[in-house]
Design brief:
Distance between the termini: 33 Å
Largest sheet: none
Mean pLDDT: 86
CATH architecture: Orthogonal Bundle
CATH class: Mainly Alpha
Strand content: under 5%
Number of helices: 10
Oligomer: single chain
CATH superfamily: MetI-like
Helix content: over 70%
Order of helices and strands: HHHHHHHHHH
CATH topology: MetI-like fold
Structural class: mainly alpha
Number of strands: 0
Radius of gyration: 23 Å
Amino acid sequence: MIKLTARPFKKAVIILFWLIIWQAASLAVHNSIILVGPLEVGRSLWIQAALPGFWKTIFLSFGKISFGFFLAFSSAILAGGLSCRFPFFKDLLEPPVSLMKSVPVASFVILALIWTGSENLSVFISFLVVFPIIYINTRAGFMSTDPRLLEMAKVFHMSPGKKLIFIYRPALLPYLISGCRAALGMGWKSGIAAEVIGVPNYSIGEKLYMAKIYLSTGDLFAWTLVIIVISAFLEKFVLWILGLAVPEPEQPKRRGV
């Protein structure tokens, strides 16, 4: 019982320590434009939460960036599987994937503003950032499949569906989970950055931009806290879903006495 309560208590003490350091630094600077403390941030968040468009802003930004992520996630898994099955498909996708990895996000944002406008900008940018990460990890996962298991499946005439579930899935999931850890954070941050540049209505990026215009550091920190919480929630949710697909290790059978 002590072990169950010790860890949360330790984390709470560490968080409290850094909050005290933050508040002390804010009092030492004594300039709300340069640095505000956690108490001012909490007050700003409370004020923002009371505004009518607060939850609509969170819902729309979360929905668009999440849609871009899941669209890239499903597309990249399909593309990664096809590229392993058909080498020509891998060669065909190599130039656009390299382009997605190397071109700066700001360049894509400007192009997307010309092509699609600002409303769906975060969907487009989060897709472009997430797709190459998941695609590369999907390919690596499929390629790591034990060839002996594939040979066994061929000998016993295992159906493609069973091979996918019992052979490819255990090899793919560790790579997919690792890729998601990186892609979730990158996709969310790039989506918000795109909103800051494009400034679509009812978006978190718009709120950050307005906080900069009015030099409202408290609002800036408050919306940054919202971004951190939503990003953490999305990461936990996606990793939990993927964790459900991880095969459980078989328990050894007990022999009768």
